[in-house]
Amino acid sequence: MGIHCEYARLAAADLDRARSDAAWAAEHLDALAEEWVELDLEPERARYFSVGRAWGPLHALLREREPAVDVVHGGTPLGLDGGLGPVRSLAPDEVRRAADFLSSTPFARLADGYDMTQLCDSEGCPDPAEHLAEERPQVLGERYDELRRFCTAAAEAGDGVLLMLN
């Protein structure tokens, strides 16, 4: 299955509640994930979203451009286990900065000089043919665009975002 990077949009009041009530946050995340699976919503309409296993190469590409907000490993730990480390939260102002960066940085510019052998999140990859389809440039571009659409919708609504690797 692999590790996926998942995101959940929360209104500011719900983000505050999630920060103070881990049990509520866990239940709410489960409900949002279930809704996302059942409804198969486009990223801009979804309250929950995943870039799947493309997170590692996307993170490596993003790090090269030094974004103001790290949308893979950033945020403030929430006190809730996300599977691979804690669930982290991005405040609405951080979501706005992330959306601005993603919107102003086309994937083609982000991936300029793309080298599959160097995009294993800081580790060299000896055989690019071993990469999953989700790590191919075309699919990474699609995941990047979906992440941009998700973050932009969250920023426009004034929402915070929870992110987790699981």
Written overview of the protein:
The protein has 166 residues and is of the alpha+beta class. The chain has one domain: 3-Layer(aba) Sandwich (Hypothetical protein yfbM fold). It is 46% helix and 17% strand. The chain has a five-stranded antiparallel β-sheet with strand order 2-1-5-4-3, with helices on both faces. It is globular. The protein starts with a strand and ends with a strand. About 7% of the residues have low confidence.
Summed up:
InterPro entries: DUF1877, YfbM-like_sf. The protein contains 6 helices and 5 strands; from the N terminus they run βααβαββαααβ. It has helices at 12-20, 22-39, 55-65, 92-104, 107-110, 137-157, and strands at 5-10, 48-52, 76-81, 86-90, 160-165.
So how many helices?
A: 6
* Helical coverage, percent range: 40-55%
The general outline is globular
Radius of gyration, in Å, reads 15 Å
**Count of DSSP strands:** 5
Overall structural domain count: 1
Question: Which secondary-structure class do the elements indicate?
Answer: alpha+beta
Low-confidence stretches: 121-131
Mean pLDDT across all residues, rounded?
86
Cα distance spanning the termini: 10 Å
Percent of residues in β-strands: 15-25%
Which architecture does the CATH hierarchy give at level 2? 3-Layer(aba) Sandwich
* Major sheet characteristics: 5 strands, antiparallel
